[in-house]
Input
Amino acid sequence: MGRLPLPTTPSATPHAPETSDEVLLRKRLKKRRGHFAGAALLASQLATLEKPAPDEGIASFAIDASPEAIVGAMREHLGL
Output
């Protein structure tokens, strides 16, 4: 599918994940092969994750669906 050009307005900027479900994220990371950001980095990444403030107009997306469904929700939100 490739990368999608995203609008630069803050209200259209997607942010994922909606929640930091560490168990689900760890499970997905363990399935990846050859990626620099493995499960060992997850805890530190979640510790520094800044959740957008409500007034920032950042769209959030649940991460408990398939990657295809998540991308679909993002595309729909962005009108793509």
User: Anything to note?
Assistant: Residues 13-31+57-80 form one domain. The chain is about 35% helix and 5% strand.
